[in-house]
Amino acid sequence: MTLWDYARVAWDKPGVSEACLALQDRHGQCVALLLWRAWAAAEGRSVSVATGRRAIAVARVWEVDIVAPLRTARRALAGGFEGDEPPERLRQAVRAVELDAERMLLDRLEALTPPPTGVRSSGLGQPLSTLVEAWNGARAESLSLSLAAALRG
């Protein structure tokens, strides 16, 4: 399964989007990177420390320079402006570009991931917690474990 397909299926599982958005909004996490790590484990793809560092470097550029500004614009458009409602068409266009940028990031993360080894990870909580901390030093173990449990469900 491609990372994009995995992310789309995972997002619809109960609790996944809520945990991802909490990690993003409360702890400054990159959702694409978290879903990449979960996909790698589910696919039996080994993620070495070096691969993890490369993934973080790629995700940081995309998240900071491309995805986050689009998210900010979309959210601003959803709130309206001093008595002037922006066209819904514009908000939807920005949303589509934001989603496309996230897909491009997922494609890049997938490309740097080694092929499956056939050995699937038995636990996802610790790898997600480690990734959260590596991303920006955040300590969000309970949310990471909630995300891991929702992804299993």
How is this structure best described in words?
The chain contains seven helices and no strands. It has 153 residues and is an all-alpha fold. The protein has one domain. Helix 1 (3-11) packs across helix 3 (31-43), helix 2 runs antiparallel to helix 7 (141-152) and helix 6 (125-136) crosses helix 7 (141-152). The longest helix is centred in the middle third of the chain and has 31 residues, at 49-79. The model has no long low-confidence stretch (mean pLDDT 92).
Instruction: Give the number of DSSP strands.
Output: 0
The share of residues in extended strands comes to under 5%
Give the rounded overall mean pLDDT: 92
Rg calc:
16 Å
The profile of the biggest β sheet is: none
Shape: globular
What is the element string, with H for helices and E for strands? HHHHHHH
Uncertain stretches? none
- The structural class is mainly alpha
Please tell me the total number of domains: 1
Distance between the termini: 18 Å
The count of helical stretches stands at 7
Name the helicity range. Answer: over 70%
Per-chain topology:
Blueprint: H1 3-11, H2 16-27, H3 31-43, H4 49-79, H5 88-111, H6 125-136, H7 141-152
Helix pairs in contact: 1-3, 2-7, 3-6, 4-5, 6-7
